[in-house]
TrEMBL record, chains A, B:
Annotated signal peptide: none
Keyword Membrane in record: no
Pfam families assigned: LacI, Peripla_BP_3
Name of the protein described by the UniProt record: DNA-binding LacI/PurR family transcriptional regulator
UniProt keyword terms in alphabetical order: DNA-binding, Transcription, Transcription regulation
Segments crossing the lipid bilayer: none
CDD domains named among the record's database cross-references: HTH_LacI
Lineage: Bacteria, Bacillati, Bacillota, Bacilli, Bacillales
GO molecular function: DNA-binding transcription factor activity; transcription cis-regulatory region binding
Organism, as annotated: Paenibacillus endophyticus
Residue ranges occupied by any HTH lacI-type domain in the UniProt entry: 3-57
InterPro entries: HTH_LacI, LacI/GalR-like_sensor, Lambda_DNA-bd_dom_sf, Peripla_BP_I
Amino acid sequence: MSITIKYIAELAGTSIATVSRVISNDSRISERTRSKIIKIIVQHGYQPNLFAKGLASKLSYNIGVLLPNPAKNVNIHSLKAVRGIISQAKHHGYNVLLLTGNSEQDVLQSIESRYKGRSMDGLILFYTSDRDDVISYLNLSGIPFVLIGRNMKHADIHAVDYDQFQAAWDATHFLVQLNHQNIAILHGPEHVTIQSDRMKGYQLALQSSRIEPNPDWCIVVEKDEEDIIVWTWINSPERPTAIIVQDDDTALKVVRALAKLKLKVPDDVSIVSFSQDTMGELVSPSLTAVHTDSYSHGYEAASMLLQLLKGTRIESNRKILPHGIKVRESTRRID
Amino acid sequence: MSITIKYIAELAGTSIATVSRVISNDSRISERTRSKIIKIIVQHGYQPNLFAKGLASKLSYNIGVLLPNPAKNVNIHSLKAVRGIISQAKHHGYNVLLLTGNSEQDVLQSIESRYKGRSMDGLILFYTSDRDDVISYLNLSGIPFVLIGRNMKHADIHAVDYDQFQAAWDATHFLVQLNHQNIAILHGPEHVTIQSDRMKGYQLALQSSRIEPNPDWCIVVEKDEEDIIVWTWINSPERPTAIIVQDDDTALKVVRALAKLKLKVPDDVSIVSFSQDTMGELVSPSLTAVHTDSYSHGYEAASMLLQLLKGTRIESNRKILPHGIKVRESTRRID
DNA sequence: CTGTTAGCGCTTTCAA
DNA sequence: TTGAAAGCGCTAACAG
């Protein structure tokens, strides 16, 4: 049998209520009793039974984390963020419960059963475009939740992200500083919101340098279309000398596509990517990239959710985290 | 107030005990009552309160997953495996609780409090060399656990892995088939067990082809030493024409180091890596690699743990999963 | 400041 | 095949 609050109370010669109060840091307990009880607790390695606690308090002290959808969107970013979440959660006495699902049905049903079953008090999820309906569901259901990323359709939900507009602005500006005039931008079919934010940043940065954005160079890449896109460009009279790419994976594909056409990075074309990973550092050429600290995304998301759970007043629904630009080998100055 | 077993019982005109039995699939319930109750449960979307369940049954229906240590060893492999774990766990009505810790202290204390606090019934962990003491602790504590990977110091624990010996044998054999005679092997300071298994596979494969292993070419790489190693080699009269590298990250570093010496992959040197990731596919040159399905590692580990928890007799402590070799651009035949 | 006590929602004997 | 009732270990009024 494991050690219970009752046993501790007996040892301390108090009632279980007193022990309970000590555990929950109730202020109206004499220093004397408190220290006595704490000593006994430590001595015996007592750990409160979270189920009893949860049952009585109607709180699970679990927060759920919904992983991005299968394979494709599972990346190091999410893992690091999860670490941040765990760390923050632990700090506040919360555990982290992991959820996934192969279909939306599956996901919704997972969330519902965990929430109704009182297994989790709130949820953190990562943005991918197919989460739209999940978010609608969450909004309706009243489950407290925080999004890592941003969603245009649901602009007012609690979210943690970095400033995608500014990030794209910075990337563009950086290239302009290197004398690039012909700058293209490639982004994926997903991430509608991020896409449009980045697009605006890109366009405004160009305009502020008196460069007119070329609409042919703002391209949405369908899966595995990099070859075609690059092929089209190479035939255009004035081809881009620099490309801003949505993510590391796509950036690598673009490098490969360029290589097939005997174009070298950064000699012929410079590339800036949006990184979620340290991978960009290892490849050749290593990738100049806009990066942000995934761990702190998770940390801050958890922090926000915990505030929500505790009913603390939250200043703002959105928390913007800093980003930076890591200059590596894939970019060069042109004359 | 959420729906409880009591409410369902009232609606069904039975006692809560009966409802409970239906839920837990007790055999001695008339088909009539069973179907009636099930209907009501479904109709009302009733979800049992897991805390009450846990409290009464002394089972949490949670399995813990201890993530690999910070940053360095966090990779896509673990994330995919975690998905496999979740999937299997869900299948059996279990949830997945995530654990980490920044220090061993931290980890041990997390495990203990979760286990004692009845938050988890068992644990799955990933192998990294600094987990040795954690494993010793787990062995002592009696917590049911399964290792993903393998540990030499604790050979008899429950574990899921692929055959590292055979994998290295295959990699070596593959290179020999491509006429390589001078084959080196690079592995990290970590993963003692894996290392020695792979080493044996490498050596025996060479010997079976009547090639005498050159001890200078079996090298343990300290962190960020790739440059030096490659530098040493290049000065040796007969340099390796092929290198087997422990993981994708190191492989990329080796490619970079070689490039500094004007050696191209695969023209001058072929490389085979042990992959944990799809990254090897995207880089240039893409990496020929031994790969295994991370998802199923997680799935099988969870399956084993669940058997342990249910007290099912387990045939073997170790489960060996298949691996394969993906031939890509980093290897070529020599004449 | 501390003790008493009534639950929280479920499982599990023990009886019927 | 079903029901009654005693907990599981803790929280949170309420009372002192």
